[in-house]
Specification:
By secondary structure, this protein is an all-alpha fold. The chain contains four helices and no strands. One of its GO terms (molecular function) is proton-transporting ATP synthase activity, rotational mechanism.
Length: about 180
């Protein structure tokens, strides 16, 4: 902690009480600058990020609801298939002597087709959810990065003026001249 304090306020750099100097030690000032920039980004960016995440959440929930509706539709199809299966089984009792093996094949095919449909729908739902999540994450990352960069540029442009530029350049030339 003493080293950090010494990097900001060094008694050796203060010849008189009224003078002012810039600390040109990059290793000491960069963590402070980064923490200030991150603090500003977090303070101003959290509302925007929250809105973006809420919108993405609503889209994902909508996709999930759509997938659930598809699942319900598939369940209804399954129920209709089961009703049809019961009907086929009743007919099978009537026609057992004539074509028992053919009816059993139709029953199995019907069950397999329905199960395959359900599996395809479930896989499609899972793939859609995963794709939407990945897309939402990538969009949020890109938008947060762009907004953070734009805000940082606006803040820097607001804070930097020609007089400050001139003073910084003069100090750096003086340091390079003394080396």
């Amino acid at each position: 902690m003493k080293n950090i304090t010494d990097s900001f306020v060094s008694v050796g750099h203060w010849p008189s009480a009224g003078s002012f100097e810039f600390n040109t030690d990059i290793l000491a000032t960069n963590p402070i600058n980064l923490s200030v920039v991150l603090g500003v980004l977090i303070f101003f960016g959290k509302g925007v990020l929250k809105d973006l995440l809420d919108k993405r959440k609503q889209r994902i929930l909508s996709t999930i609801r759509n997938s659930e509706e598809l699942r319900r539709g598939a369940a209804e199809q399954l129920e209709r298939a089961r009703a049809r299966l019961r009907k086929v089984e009743m007919e099978a009792d009537e026609y057992r002597l004539n074509g028992y093996s053919e009816i059993e094949r139709e029953k199995k095919n019907l069950i397999n087709a329905t199960c395959d449909s359900l599996e395809r729908l479930e896989n499609y739902k899972n793939e859609t959810i995963f794709f939407e999540q990945q897309r939402a994450i990538n969009q949020v990352r890109q938008q947060v990065f762009q907004q953070a960069l734009q805000r940082a540029l606006v803040i820097l442009n607001r804070c930097l003026n020609s007089e400050l530029h001139f003073c910084t350049i003069s100090v750096n030339i003086g340091i390079l001249g003394s080396v």
